[in-house]
Design brief:
The protein has 36 helices and seven strands. The chain is mainly alpha-helical. It is flat. Helix content is 62%, strand content 4%. Helix 8 crosses helix 11. The strands form two sheets. A five-stranded antiparallel beta sheet has the order 3-2-1-4-5, with helices on both faces. It has a two-stranded antiparallel ribbon with strand order 6-7.
Length: 680
Amino acid sequence: MSSASSSAPVAAPLTTTLSRLMLAIARRRAYSDGHPMVTEADALVADTLGPYLEAHGSLSLAVASRELLVDGKPAPAGAVAKELAIRLHQLNIGAVRMHPGMSREAISTFVALLARRAADVRPHDPFPDMPGIAVGRLDFDALGLADQASVQTASTQLWRTLAQRVLAAMGADAGSGADAEGSTPTTLGAALSHASANDGAARQAFEALNGMAEQVRMAPRRVQHEIGDQLQALLSATEQSAMVSALRAGSGDSRARLVANMVDVLPAAAVVQWLNSAAKASGRDLSPHLLRLLSKMSVHFRGRRPDVAAEELRAAARELVEDWNLAEPNPAEHALFLDTLALWSAHGEGHAGSGRDATLDPRTAEASRLVQMAIEIDVVSEDLSLAVQRLADDGHTAAVLSWIEHSASPALRHRLRSLMLTPASMLQVLLATPFDAVEAQRLLDATPADACDVLLEALERCESRTGRRLIFDRLRTMPSSIATDVCARLSRPTPWFLARNLLALLRDLSLADPEVVERLTPGPLLSFQRHERAAVRREAVRLLVQFPAARAAALRRALDDATPDVQHTAIDAAYAWRSQPWAPDVAQRLLGLAANDALDVALREKALRAVGATVIPEVRSWLLAHVSRRSALRSAAKLAAITPTVRAALQLLASRWNNDAEAQPVLTLARKANLVGGEA
């Protein structure tokens, strides 16, 4: 063994690495940023991570059901791994990936990120820029109702970070964020082309793309889709020679990782273009036959089952990248076979062609030609209704709807939709197994408002979570008048999951149109607070607090619920309506939960602030008892130890009881301690 090898640092075991990370977090929480103990702990983390990453290539941490996964496998059992998993979960961090070459500054920033209080974390706060460290949020896409605003916020933050780093690579002043804020794929494409002019700028551009791809790969799926479309536009707006130069600026391993990550996040239609640039940067060349075939496949993936087909394309692309063995050993017959496949017309594309008709029986093929002829010549024949019914019965509803969109006549489009969208044909698509999300979305986009009953039936019977999500989203966008139909469905025996979804739907409708609350009677809905399922009781209280007449009663029952999740939901609801005064018994229930040490401190603080508008003696007495203590030697009061709830209680006393004689001694002590503002 050489001397150089013997002097190289030895990688510490995984448990040592994680222990030093948790030690640095604890030091950061106990001392100020510049304290020597903090600096020493950060240095230990850096000294441990460096050799570990050099030895293993990377380190991936993830949280699954509050269990820590390291490089995809459960971490060694122990208090350190459990504590780190809980901390990541509380901070809404689902995954972390680290690579060699991290700076000491990036490590310190990462430790500071993990040392934050859970109560200080807002769901959509952007993560700091830490070169060499990618952080992803917990993916809540499958847990309930999607939040388009949060998806847009996350994708905007990722795009802004990329823009700032690309603009910095070409020497622009991106520090203020002004240029980055308004950057489009076109402007960033021009910046990348400019940056490729010299090696240093090309290297910075590569690091910007690499960091972005790492972050997007660990983002929730809907954020990946949102930012993937922007990356596709950026790829189209950037000269291929510039993209090749940027890719060549990275090392072999880093370039391979970037290529693979981009394959995972780009839309299927852009994967081939990306592979072509990556091949040139790697000194390879794609077979023209293979390139033509992949291009055709990427277009056809917009048809049936795009989720399955796109993953097949990505799997082929990953295998291709792992081994750029693109020599041309194929005989001419095989090349001809590939050309034949590339010219194939995919079923479900929505265009007429012999390739599709060959898959249909003669009567269905004839019905297909009849409908397409009616669309082309804008004439409705006597046989059109029978042809449409035939196609609907054979499961071609979504295909016909796509043809209808090409009709130039609004009257013909309306006529064909009314013929096609029967309850039977709609349920055939929405209840299909396996579920086809593209066909279902196309049908739902064309569904009229008077089809509410059909969609409610489909929402109950659909076995696909994706299907229920799509149906629910369509119901949310329907006129608020469907609230009456929803209530009528709730009045009949209802499976618990449907009851939960319908209560959530009513809440969304009432938030979109406040008149819904005026039209409905809350009495029958109160019974859902006695449902055996906690998930139903939670949605019930979320809905019932929208009704002024039922608000207090709903909160009483939810605050008394034996299930903590229902109590927590009630606290959130009371906090949302904290501007109104509560009845004394409701206020007492909230204050009782605020005093419960078993609850999370942020939840206790919410319960306390929820009674802010309830100016009654009982609340004042509770607040005074919470913030003050009697001295053992003297009868004078003194402030209790300062906690988040004590601070919140002092603020309520100062805002609501500033002139109250009983509150003055305590408020005077609080002002001397600079815990509240001066006298009004």
